[in-house]
Structure formats: structure tokens, C-alpha cells
Design brief:
mainly alpha; two-stranded antiparallel sheet; 15 helices; 65% helix; globular; nucleotide-binding; ATP-binding; transmembrane helix
């Protein structure tokens, strides 16, 4: 038998030392404070915020009603904020100058809470608007226009709200790069629209551009195991329509929920401009909520930490989304079919994709705000280069710009290059906030 020592004289001191180490590790709430950490948050947010619009666009193109999709999206978007608040916002013990999430819920901080909720309202309106704009203007161009408005208006407001902690000599040239990219993006849209019109003009399936469409014509049929069988003739198989062809454009119009053929492009551009103005205001509102530059709170009341502000921000975003989309179920816009809560609850076609989009958007916004609190919200607006990601998904998944002209490809490459330059310049302007 192995002898067991009964000498426990050092056990008390060992337990005490371990406990002290654990307490020390949990003293501070997790906050992004370094410039490198802030840039990492912005890059991850850039990917998330550029990906979720592609998912919602995919569902609309498959025929799912946008009201159903946005209700699902809103649920997980709020869930992401709650998860962030209950994890990062609750790490460690509360301190007088930096209370954790639960502690702040009972404090008298309503002026800043209202700023956060105002930011959530305008973001919800912007996101809801873009869901309809994508169908009319296209994913890439919609994101370009809204991002540019956000940068020009929102970044300028954040620069002054942040007491000019960003390097102006770097920041504003970055804004200029965005404006150049916007002009190129508009040119891409114009050139691609001309290409599509030329394709449809040569198609026998399109009746003089008036929105009368028929099933796509198939030019070749041949027996292949990996093709779809023609149900009317068992001896042949239908060739799958290729991205960028006139037949593909007509097939898309037949499938999608929002019909766009024959409708004025001004409808989509108007919705897009409205969304851009909304997007330009939510980040400055969140900035005011976390830093109280207008001194609206009582003396001695700590500022909202980023996680608490994001929670209230997401609550108002969720409420507005639920109210508007339930209204649109029974009173749809843009000639969409009428639906109901019962029909929504039974519609599981694409629901999990909508849930994923909500999580990506929620975590993307949270990461943007975490990076902005550390490096300045003007620099965090570098995530408005999300059209880089959206254009990638648009080309890869939706076949945008396939079979387009050489002019369109040249303009598209120039736009993407300018966006890359804009992202790099805005991130290089990052400062450092000393708040805690």
C-alpha cells in the first residue's frame, strides 16, 4: 500500500493563492482596448456584415416573402445581443466606474439608453428598407450606395463626437476613396443594367421589356445523368440555365418574391437612399449612448458600457422590426402577396438561413461597436466597406455580372480595388480612446 502523507500544512496557503489568482483574472470586464484588437474586431465585423445581406437576398430570390424572412432574422439578431451582454458584459466584478451589464440595468442612465434605442430604431428601418432595395437595385450596388452615405455623413459625425481622436489627415482621404468607389459602383450598375437590357432584347421570352415573362427557353436538350429530366419527354434532359443569360434573368423573375420587371428603378434608388441616411445615424447615436458627449446623465452616473448599450440598441431594433413586419403581413407593400401570422409560423422554407443571417448581423454589429469604443467610431466605420464581401457573394452565389461586357468587368475591378484602399486608409486612421 502506498503511504499517504498527513501533512496538510501547505494546503491552506495553496488554496488561498489559487483563489487570489482566479479573482484577479476576473476583476476586469472584457473590453477591447488595444488598436490591434480593435482592427481584428472590425475585420471580423466586415465579414459578418457583408455576408448576412447575401443570405436574405438568396431567400428572396427563392421566393420566400421578405416579411417572413425578416421576422426570423430579428429573433436571432436580438439573441446575439443578449448573448454578448450576458457573457462579455458579465465577466468579472462590477466596479463604480465600469459596472457590468446586470448592474447597469438598474441605474439611472435613461438619457443614454434613449440614444442607444434611437440608434436601434434607425438601423432597423435601414435594414428593412435594404431588403426591398436589393431586389430592385441589386445586392452590390445597394450596399455601395448605403455604405457611401454612411461613411460621408456618419463618419464625419463620429469624428467630431470622438473629440477628433482619429487622424484627420488619414481619415478624410479614406472618405474620399469611398466616394470614388461610389461613383465607380454607380457606373458598374449602369453598365450592367445596359448589358442585361441587351440580353433581354435578344430573348424571345421577354415581351418588349414590359414585364411579360414566359418560362425560360431551353436551346439544347441531351441525356445526362447530372441534368434535370424533362417531365414532358422522358428521353431528354433539360439543360440548366446558365448565370448571366437572358433565360436566367427571366427564370429569376419568375421565382423571386419581389417582382421587378417593368418597375421604375427610381423606386429602388429612393429606398436605397432612405436606408443610407438611416445607416449614417445609428453609429453616432450609439457613440452618444456610450460616451455621453452631450453630458445628459446625472453627475456620478457611469457611462453605458458597450454591451449594455448594445442590448438596449437591439431591443428597440427588434420591437420596430416586429411591429412593421407584422403590419406588412396583412398590408404588404410593392404588390407582394398578403400573408398572416399563421402562414408565417408554418413557413419553414429557409427559416434556418434567416436565423443564421440574424446571428451574423447581431455579432457583426456588436464587434463593430466593440472596436469603435476602443479605436474611435469613425475608424470603425471601415466596416462600411462591406460591399467588398457582398459583391463577392453576389458574384459567387447569384451570378451577378456573369456574361457582362468588358467595360462592366473593368469598372467592377476598379470599384473593388478602391474599396480595399478605403478600408486600409480608414483603419490606419484609428486612434485610441482613454475612457476607463
Amino acid at each position: 500500500m502506498i503511504p499517504v502523507s498527513k501533512d496538510f500544512s501547505g494546503l491552506d496557503s495553496l488554496i488561498s493563492l489559487s483563489t487570489e489568482g482566479l479573482n484577479f483574472a476576473g476583476l476586469n470586464m472584457y473590453l477591447v482596448e488595444s488598436r490591434g484588437g480593435a482592427i481584428a474586431c472590425m475585420l471580423l465585423a466586415l465579414f459578418f456584415l457583408g455576408t448576412w445581406p447575401a443570405i436574405l437576398t438568396l431567400l428572396e430570390r427563392r421566393g420566400r416573402l421578405p416579411q417572413h424572412t425578416y421576422l426570423d432574422y430579428s429573433i436571432t439578431n436580438l439573441l446575439a445581443a443578449v448573448l454578448i451582454a450576458l457573457t462579455f458584459g458579465q465577466i468579472g466584478h462590477s466596479k463604480p466606474g465600469m459596472p457590468n451589464f446586470i448592474t447597469q440595468l438598474s441605474q439611472d442612465n435613461w438619457p443614454c439608453v434613449l440614444f442607444a434605442m434611437a440608434g436601434g430604431i434607425v438601423l432597423s428601418l435601414g435594414n428593412l428598407s435594404t431588403q426591398y432595395a436589393w431586389a430592385f437595385v441589386g445586392l452590390s450596388v445597394t450596399e455601395v450606395i448605403t455604405a457611401s452615405i454612411t461613411v460621408v455623413i456618419g463618419t464625419t459625425l463620429n469624428y467630431f463626437l470622438d473629440n477628433r481622436i482619429n487622424k484627420a489627415e488619414i481619415l478624410f482621404p479614406g472618405v474620399g476613396c469611398f466616394l470614388i468607389a461610389v461613383c465607380l459602383g454607380s457606373a458598374v450598375h449602369s453598365s450592367n443594367a445596359a448589358d442585361n437590357k441587351a440580353k433581354l432584347d435578344f430573348s424571345n421570352s421577354y415581351n418588349n421589356g414590359k414585364g411579360n415573362v414566359e418560362a425560360p427557353l431551353v436551346k439544347e436538350t441531351f441525356p445526362k445523368k447530372n441534368e434535370t429530366k424533362d417531365v414532358e419527354d422522358g428521353d431528354y434532359y433539360l439543360e440548366k440555365t446558365e448565370f448571366g443569360t437572358a433565360d436566367f434573368l427571366i427564370e429569376l423573375e419568375n421565382k423571386r418574391a419581389i417582382k421587378v420587371f417593368g418597375k421604375s428603378i427610381l423606386i429602388g434608388l429612393g429606398i436605397t437612399l432612405f436606408a443610407g441616411v438611416c445607416f449614417s445615424l445609428f453609429s453616432p447615436a450609439f457613440n452618444l449612448a456610450t460616451n455621453d458627449q452631450w453630458h445628459t446623465m446625472k453627475e456620478g452616473v457611469p457611462h453605458l458600457v458597450v454591451y449594455t448599450a448594445f442590448f438596449y440598441f437591439s431591443i428597440s431594433c427588434f420591437i420596430i422590426a416586429i411591429i412593421l413586419n407584422i403590419t406588412f403581413l396583412y398590408h404588404p407593400v410593392l404588390n407582394l402577396p398578403r400573408s398572416s401570422l399563421t402562414a408565417y409560423l408554418k413557413d419553414w422554407n429557409g427559416r434556418y438561413w434567416a436565423f443564421l443571417a440574424g446571428l451574423l448581423c447581431g455579432f457583426g454589429n456588436g464587434l463593430q461597436f466593440m472596436g469603435g469604443q476602443a479605436a474611435g467610431y469613425a475608424a470603425a466605420d471601415a466596416v462600411q466597406a462591406l460591399p467588398l464581401v457582398s459583391t463577392f457573394w453576389g458574384i459567387l452565389v447569384f451570378g451577378e455580372y456573369r456574361r457582362s461586357s468588358r467595360k462592366t468587368y473593368l469598372l467592377l475591378g476598379s470599384m473593388l480595388f478602391m474599396f480595399i484602399v478605403a478600408v486600409a486608409v480608414l483603419m490606419a486612421s484609428a486612434g485610441h480612446r482613454n475612457t476607463y
